[in-house]
Structures are given as C-alpha cells and as structure tokens.
Automatic annotation (TrEMBL):
Stretches assigned to the AB hydrolase-1 domain: 11-223
Gene3D superfamilies cross-referenced by the UniProt entry: alpha/beta hydrolase
High-level lineage: Bacteria, Pseudomonadati, Pseudomonadota, Betaproteobacteria, Nitrosomonadales
Protein name: AB hydrolase-1 domain-containing protein
C-alpha cells in the first residue's frame, strides 16, 4: 500500500561540502519504505549558483509540493533554491541557514568561543578539503571508523566560490522550516545551529550526533523530514 504522502509531497535531499549524495542512502531507504517520492541532488559544490541550479533541475521534475532538505552547506543551497514556488517546506539537518547576504564564509569567520575550528585545508586551486587524519573525529565521530575513513578518502573538493556564495533572499522567511540540531557536532557548533534555527523560526529537534548525523542516525533524520512532509497535507 502506498503511503498517502506520495500524493502530497516529494522529498529532495541536498548534501553539503566534502561529500556527495550517497551519504543519504539510509535516510532515502527509510523514506522510500514509507511510500515517499525521494530524489537526491548530486550538487557539484563548485559554486552556490551551480548548486542551486542542480537542485532546481530536480525540483522542476516534481508534480507534488517539495520538501527541500539540506545538510551542512546544503542548508545554504536550500535557503536560496527554496524560493522556488514548488517548495512547500525546508528541513535543515545540522545545516547553515543564512540570512540575506550571508555565506558559509561570513558565518564561520567569527568562531563560537571555546570551539575548535574544523580542519579545513587547501585541496588544489580554488578548492578546499578536510584533513583526512582528522575527518573521523571532526565530521563523523559517531560513524564506524571504516566508513568514516571511506568518506574521508572519497571527499569531493569544496569550491571556495561555494563557501563564499551569498544568499539573495532566504526562503525561510516565507516558507515553514524544521531544523535538526546535532548536539555533538564538531563542524558547526551546536550553539550556532541553535541560533540559526531560532532566527529562522524553525521547528527544532535536538538529537545527540556528529555532523554526519544523516549517516549515523538516519531514523531521526527521516522522522523530522516526515514531520515536515505531514505538515503539507
């Protein structure tokens, strides 16, 4: 039996920097089992404009209202792409939720006191990567080491133009939003997540997990996405 939500909402998942869309696999499987139409954007993370365009190409294929989900830098992408009229709601998963004129670069330039900056380093001209030796601890502390090592060694270089891409009009000002705060995140400090979610007026759920909570706690991530989807009925 197909879940009723299939007729009401499509779910579009947007990954962040340093990774690709494959990390959403377990979340995807849970949502598909529950009858949802789910698509995963393989945004190139080369520039905000390129990533928004990749996301909007997927949105354009949908007949139902779209629940747009972003992890980490993917939150910037959905904040911009979410202005598409097909988008009914936004879901931020340990993500940046910038205001007008803000970018990841502008948000992280003033670190939260007492926190350790992420181990970001150059990865070729115009691109950034995470120190492979520190990837597990910083990005995916609650993911099994062999999987975290694979993620570290299959990194997608993150474009400086994506890091510095500024939002023109934040969709959260006109669309309802949900926000999952990962309370043991070492990439985006939880206080920063809490501040951004409060500013956006999001419905907030806090879950103990690393920055890679979409990999380590797929059930919790799927649950908040389903809550957003149910709201569009």
């Amino acid at each position: 039996m197909v879940h009723l939500a299939t007729a009401l909402a499509s779910i579009v998942l947007v990954h962040g920097g340093f990774v690709d869309g494959s990390g959403w696999e377990d979340v995807y499987k849970i949502l598909k089992k529950d009858g949802y139409d789910v698509s995963i954007v393989q945004n190139p993370t080369t520039s905000l404009a390129d990533d928004v365009a990749a996301t909007k190409r997927i949105i354009a294929t949908k007949q139902q209202p779209v629940i747009l989900v972003g992890h980490s830098y993917g939150g910037v992408v959905i904040t911009e792409a979410g202005n598409d009229p097909k988008v009914a709601a936004l879901v931020y998963i340990a993500a940046f939720a910038p205001d007008k004129g803000e970018s990841v670069g502008s948000i992280i330039k003033d670190p939260v006191p007492g926190t350790t900056p992420p181990p970001i380093q150059p990865a070729g001209e115009g691109f950034l990567g995470l120190d492979k030796a520190k990837f597990h601890e910083a990005f995916a502390a609650d993911v099994k080491k062999d999987k975290a090592d694979f993620m570290a060694n299959s990194q997608v270089p993150w474009g400086v133009n994506a890091l510095n891409g500024a939002v023109t009009e934040p969709a959260w000002k006109t669309k309802p939003s949900w926000y999952l705060v990962a309370t043991t995140d070492r990439m985006i400090p939880p206080p920063a997540q809490q501040a951004m979610s409060k500013r956006a007026g999001s419905t907030v759920v806090e879950v103990a997990g690393s920055h890679a909570i979409y990999v380590s706690k797929p059930q919790a991530v799927a649950s908040i996405i389903k809550a957003a989807a149910q709201s569009t009925k």
